[in-house]
TrEMBL record:
GO terms for cellular component: cytoplasm
Protein encoded by which gene: pyrH
The protein's Enzyme Commission number: 2.7.4.22
SUPFAM superfamilies: Carbamate kinase-like
Purpose: Catalyzes the reversible phosphorylation of UMP to UDP.
NCBIfam families for the chain: pyrH_bact (TIGR02075)
Predominant location: cytoplasm
Subcellular localization: Cytoplasm
Protein name (Swiss-Prot/TrEMBL): Uridylate kinase
Regulation: Allosterically activated by GTP. Inhibited by UTP.
Family of this protein: Belongs to the UMP kinase family.
Length: 238
C-alpha cells in the first residue's frame, strides 16, 4: 500500500529529548507510548518504517567532554544511551502489536541484533519496524548522521525529522514572533545560512544521496500520518 504522496519506506528521526516529556531528563513512558502510537498510524498505512532515536535525554558526548571526560569515551556513552531509548521504543511498539527490531551499530548480541544491511532490509519487507541504535558506531558523529546513513542504506524515500516546531524558520520562532517558516529550502541554503536542522555532515550526506528531509512537529494536528501524506505544515529540504 502506498500513501497519497507515495512514500513506502521512510526514516523517522527523533531526538532523545522527545522521549523525556516535561521531566527534563531520561525516559517518560507515557511520552514514549504517545510517539509509538504515531508510528503505528503510518505502519497501519503500509509504510515501512525505519527509526533512529537520539540519546540527548540521557547523555551527550559533548557534555561529557566539556566536563573533562575523554571525548571518544563520552561519545560511546552517548551511543549506549541511544540503545536504551531504542529498547524503550521497541517495548512501546510491541505493546501495540507491531513487530520491531532493535539493530545496533555496536554488536551487543544479548540485547539486540547487530547491523547487517541485508537482514535489516528483509525485516522492513516483512513490515517490522527497524530501530537503528548506537548511532553510526563511531565517535564524533551524531544520530542525525546515523539517520541519514541508514536511510541511504535502506533506500528510504525521505527522512522525517520530528521536532518541537513545525519546520525550519529563518530565526527562532520561540523568541522571534516574526520568524518566517520555510516551506521548502535547499541543502545548500541550510548549510550557507547555518539553519538549525541537522549538523552539517548529515545535511551534506543527505544532499549527496538526494534524500529529502522533512522537518515537522511531533504534535502536528494531523499527526505523523498526516505529514507522511503531505498534509499540514512542515519544511522540506531538497
Ligand atoms: N554519538 C556518537 N556517534 C554517533 C551517534 C551518536 O558518538 O554516530 C553520541 C554523541 O556523543 C551524541 C550522543 O551519542 O552526543 C547522543 O546522540 P545525539 O546527540 O545525536 O542525540 P539527540 O540530540 O538526537 O538526542
Amino acid at each position: 500500500a502506498a500513501t497519497t504522496t507515495g512514500f513506502t519506506r521512510i526514516m523517522l528521526k527523533i531526538s532523545g529529548e522527545a522521549l523525556m516529556g516535561d521531566q527534563g531528563f531520561g525516559l517518560n513512558p507515557p511520552t514514549v507510548e504517545r510517539i509509538a502510537k504515531q508510528v503505528k498510524t503510518i505502519h497501519d498505512l503500509g509504510v515501512e518504517v525505519c527509526m533512529v532515536i537520539g540519546g540527548g535525554n540521557i547523555f551527550r558526548g559533548l557534555q561529557g567532554s566539556a566536563q573533562g571526560m575523554e571525548r571518544t569515551t563520552a561519545d560511546y556513552m552517548g551511543m549506549l544511551a541511544t540503545v536504551m531509548n531504542a529498547l524503550a521504543m521497541q517495548s512501546a511498539l510491541e505493546a501495540l502489536k507491531i513487530n520491531t527490531r532493535v539493530i545496533s551499530a555496536i554488536p551487543m548480541d544479548q540485547v539486540c541484533e547487530p547491523y547487517i544491511r541485508r537482514r535489516a532490509v528483509r525485516h522492513l519487507e516483512k513490515k517490522r519496524v527497524c530501530i537503528f541504535a548506537a548511532g553510526t558506531g563511531n565517535p564524533f558523529f551524531t544520530t542525525d548522521t546515523a539517520a541519514t546513513l541508514r536511510a541511504s542504506e535502506m533506500k528510504c524515500q525521505a527522512i522525517f525529522k520530528g521536532t518541537q516546531v513545525d519546520g525550519i524558520y529563518d530565526s527562532d520562532p520561540k523568541t522571534n514572533p516574526d520568524a518566517k517558516r520555510y516551506d521548502r529550502v535547499t541543502y545548500d541554503e541550510v548549510l550557507a545560512k547555518n539553519l538549525k536542522v541537522m549538523d552539517a555532515s548529515a545535511i551534506a550526506l543527505a544532499r549527496d544521496n538526494a534524500l529529502p528531509i522533512i522537518v515537522f512537529s511531533l504534535s502536528a494536528p494531523g499527526g505523523l500520518a498526516g505529514i507522511v501524506q503531505g498534509e499540514g505544515k512542515y519544511t522540506m529540504v531538497t
